[in-house]
Each structure stands twice: as C-alpha cells, then as structure tokens.
Amino acid sequence: MRRLAILGSTGSIGTSTLDVVGAHPDRFQVMALAARANLDLLEAQVRRHAPRLVSVATEASARELRRRLGRTSTEVGWGTAGLLGAAADTGADLVVSAIVGGAGLLPTMTAIAAGKDVALANKESLVMAGHLVTAEAQERGVRILPVDSEHSAIFQCLGGRDASQLRRIILTASGGPFRTRPRAAFAGITPEEALKHPNWAMGKKVTIDSATLMNKGLEVIEAHWLFGLPVGQVDVIIHPQSIVHSLVEFMDGSMLAQLGVPDMRVPIQYALTYPDRRANAVPRLALENLAGLTFEAVDREKFPCLDLAYEAAQAGGSSPTVLNAANEVAVQGFLSRRIGFDEIPTLIRKALDAHPRQDVSTVEEVLEVDREVRRQLEEH
C-alpha cells in the first residue's frame, strides 16, 4: 500500500491522479489533499478518499470546508502552513507535486526535506531551483519520479541506464494550436483559441505555454536536471500526433522511443507504481489505425519562447527563475486580455534583460528573485 499526498488535487493532474487511485483502491491510500479554492470538487474528493489532512488557500475557505464536511476525521488546514503540512506531516511516502507554477517550489522542497519521494508534475520547481532540488533529493536519498509525459518517456527509455551513454534527449512537442498559423497573424490570437489544444486536456496555464512552446522550453530545463545532461544535449522536435512522447539517442546512434495514447493517466500511474506496471482502463494504441507519425523542426522565429528558455538555462543562476516568473505574469496578462499573444515573448525578453544573472544558493533567494520580477512586471 503506497500512501499518497496530492498537492493540487483539483487540477488536471490531481484529478487524473485520483482517477488512477480510484482504479487501484488496494494499492493506494490518500493521506493528504491540497487545493486552492475549488471547494465543490475538493469536498467530493475528501468524502471519497478520507484523507487525514486537507488544505485550502484561505482561512475563509477552510471554515467553509469544515462546515460542509461536518463530523469527519479529516483535519482542515489552510495557507502556507496547511500546504506544507500536507507535503510533509501526514505519513505519506510519496508526494504528488501538481501545483501549477512557481507556487509549487516550496512544498516540493518541503516534501523532499522530509524524506518523501516526489512524483513531480510541477516542472517549475526544477526550472527555478533545479540545483537546489536535486542536491536536496540526493542528500535525503529521495527519488524524483517524473510525471510529465515527455520526461516519463525519457525515464522509461533509459530503463536505469547511465545518462553517460546518451548522445542526446529528444523532447517531442505537438506544436500546439498555432503550428501552421502564420506568425503575422499571432497578434490577433484570442485566449479562447489558445486554450484549444489539439491533443491534450490540460490546465489553462500549461495550455497557453504549449501554444507558445514555452512549455517545451521549461521541459528542456527540467530534463537537464532530471537526467544530468547539459542543456545543449536536450533537443526539441515537433510531432503533431503526440503519439511518440519523447526519445533518447545513444552514443552508437540507436534511438529508443516511448509511444502511447495522449492520456496523462499513463505517466501518472507509472510514477505512482514505479518500478512496477499495472493494467489500466486507458484506451490502447492501435498502430494499424494510425495514418502516420510525422516530425518536423521547430520554427524558432515563430516560437521565440523556446530560445528564451535555452538562453536562460545556459546562463544559469537566477536567469531560469526570471524566465519562469516573467512567463507566468505574461500568461496571466494574456488570459486577462491585458497583452496580446505575440507580446508574451516580448515581456519575457524585457524581464531577462532587466535582471542581470546572479547566483542563488538558497530557496529563499530564489523566491526573492521570483517576487521581485513579478512586482516589477505588475507595476508596468
């Protein structure tokens, strides 16, 4: 029986994780759930899975959730203390880190410091502070198990092999909804259009990142830290069908790829059950029905966010934190219709230029850079 804490339980990854849990009730016990403010869904999750602790964002939400739950044994927490308690103090042995954005860094580090294995869907933790996260995990003897479909694919292809045998990692990208749209038309893209991903059902922020290809840039940095390869050995290729989830190329030219239907329950389940595999109800990939698998180079002029991510990764230090914070502000600005789709990379470029690289050696320093970038961007 694996005991789980799920951070971000009402989001896309969180709900898919609980689908996996519900399909294998003999295998998992939910110890803690943490969400922001979706009380209707969270209440239903608590009633079904009876965690020891549930945490929400505000004291008012906590009071309302306690009222709804009535006489249950589940403790209700709130704010940072409640979230960190869910990450570290409930007896879980595996923490699913599925909070979106930079807000996931502190609870992820808290779980690792408490000796918990982490099923990582919050790529921003490694983007912002990969050197700190991986060092802490190594010191504590903690496993970081990738949940992102691309990194799960790499993890599966490696099969325990040393990364020194690799020539490169190749991350696949669908190209998003605007792969074939002319760059000149990007200024007129609406949030509604950008939220219509052709293959995957994801949260709003990740969906917009997929449309700009920033999501792939963040994944390049994540892969660098997860697998210990220089950023220059992590490539990106467009694969519109989203059937090949990523590939590895070995020194001898051989390639291994992981294929499957685009359903996040597959990599989630693999992270939860690793090193075992179990049957599931996900539709099977029928190779005979595939019209074809195609690949193409990224149009880097059309999607400059990818090169911005490579630039920040090569610079290191505080630069990836600046990149991530600026992107989150830009995405929210676009969703709120304050800036255009084509202005997202422009805003990120300005933030990187305005914040010279500096060394960051603690989580507190990383978070201070994050706060400063957000403050300056939101003031302008």
CATH topology of the largest domain: Rna Polymerase Sigma Factor, Chain: A
What fraction, in percent, of the residue positions are helical? 40-55%
What's the shape?
globular
Question: What is the top-level CATH class of the largest domain?
Answer: Mainly Alpha
Q: How many individual β-strands?
A: 11
| Count of alpha and pi helical runs | 15
CATH superfamily of the largest domain, by name, is RNA polymerase sigma factor, region 2, helix turn helix motif
Rg from Cα: 20 Å
Count of discrete structural domains: 2
Query: Which structural class should the secondary elements be placed in?
Result: alpha/beta
Order of helices and strands: EHEHEHEHEHEHEHEHHHEEEHHHHH
Q: Tell me the strand percentage band.
A: 15-25%
Integer average pLDDT: 96
Tell me the strand order in the biggest sheet: 4-3-2-1-5-6-7
Main sheet attributes: strand count, strand direction, barrel closure? 7 strands, parallel
Query: For the terminal residues, how far apart are their CA atoms?
Result: 51 Å
Uncertain segments: none
Second-tier CATH architecture of the largest domain: Orthogonal Bundle
Short account of what is shown:
The chain has helices spanning 12-23, 39-49, 59-69, 79-88, 105-113, 124-140, 149-158, 191-194, 204-212, 214-227, 265-273, 305-315, 319-335, 344-354, 363-379, and strands at 2-7, 28-34, 53-56, 75-78, 94-97, 117-120, 144-146, 166-173, 234-238, 244-250, 255-259. With 380 residues, the chain is an alpha/beta fold. It has two domains: 2-146, NAD(P)-binding Rossmann-like Domain (Rossmann fold); 151-262 and 283-379, RNA polymerase sigma factor, region 2, helix turn helix motif (Rna Polymerase Sigma Factor, Chain: A), CATH 1.10.1740.10.
